[in-house]
Amino acid sequence: MKKLGREHVIYAHDKCDDPVMFINPGESICVETYDCYQGQMLPADARYEQCDRRCINPATGPVYVRGAEPGDTLKIEIMDIRLGAVGIVDCGTPGSVLEDQFSQVTVKRLPVKDGVIFYDGKQVPAEPMIGIIGVAPAEEPVSTLSPGTHGGNLDCRRITKGAVLYLPVSATGALLSVGDLHAVMGDGEVGNCGVEIEGSVELRVDLIPKTERKYIMLENQEDWITIASAESLDQASEAAVWQMSDFLQQTMGMEAVDAGILLTLAGNLAVCQVVNPLKTVRMELSKAQIERWMS
Ligand code: CA
Ligand code: CA
After folding, report:
1. Alpha carbon of 37 to ligand 2 centroid (Å)
2. Side-chain half-sphere CA neighbours of 260 within 13 A
């Protein structure tokens, strides 16, 4: 399996970036990633105020997928997520929901071992997820701090081992980048972070030509999931529902009325994150439920 080292970092998804790896559709790759502070908070004496903000939210890449063109869909199977030994969590950071409650930022370094996170003598099961996974957008570069239809900083905790992410390709070669792993994170990411951690991910990257699908889909064993980002949670929610309705009609061949009724009976909206420049919402719909509806 090809391995991409984390020294190849980007801070924006940009179609003009030079690729650091070329792969064929169907290939598997292992990508090393930094934590969202690029390791700056790992030393015991590191202080949040001294963190170089220019190095926040690095992603590793970009990877050029041969044959990928705008209008195609990149199919990314998340085969594994391996976590580093120490995760960082902070509290009271600017942008967090409870920011006003704290006069200073607290940073905690949490050991992570064998799927368990240790916090002041307490144990929290790890649920590894990928915060940033995206391709180059069609137009201007987009910061790795922001999510969008290119993917990016989606902070969706369903983007985890075993899931398959479908990203619309907007630039030749797609230019895939990955970063910002979390050992665990709650829906909403209300404190502005999860347990931020370095690590590596194994991905199998394939190409579905000419889908012309403009939005992000995610699939796991149980559910089909749409993901949408917008300036407000209202707008993001609406977009996630529209996307699922479109998916049911275009891909599953459902009538609009049947799709609409299924969504109100069984579609589950959930907040991915409320702390990034755009907010992200997902809609989850059980595959078993879809099957019953179509039988
Ligand atoms: Ca993030
Ligand atoms: Ca993060």
Report:
1. 9
2. 3
Distance 230 CA to ligand 1 centre (A): 15
Span from the CA of 155 to the centroid of ligand 1 (angstroms): 5
Note down pLDDT in tens along the chain; length 295 residues: 999 999 999 999 999 999 999 999 999 999 999 999 999 999 999 999 999 999 999 999 999 999 999 999 999 999 999 999 999 999 998 889 999 999 999 999 999 999 999 999 999 999 999 999 999 999 999 999 999 999 999 999 999 999 999 999 999 999 999 999 999 999 999 999 999 999 999 999 999 999 999 999 999 999 999 999 999 999 999 999 999 999 999 999 999 999 999 999 999 999 999 999 999 999 999 999 999 999 8
Find the ligand nearest to 276 CA: 1
Find the 10 Cα to ligand 1 centroid distance in Å: 14
55: left (phi over 0), alpha (psi -120 to 50) or beta: alpha
Q: Tell me how far the alpha carbon of residue 214 lies from the centroid of ligand 1, in angstroms.
A: 22
Whole-prediction pTM value? 0.97
Q: Which ligand is nearest to the CA of 93?
A: 2
User: Which numbered ligand comes closest to the C-alpha of 275?
Assistant: 1
Q: What is the DSSP letter of 194?
A: S
Burial class (CB in 10 A: 0-12, 13-18, 19+), 288: exposed
The half-sphere exposure of 250 on its side-chain side, counting CA atoms within 13 A, is 11
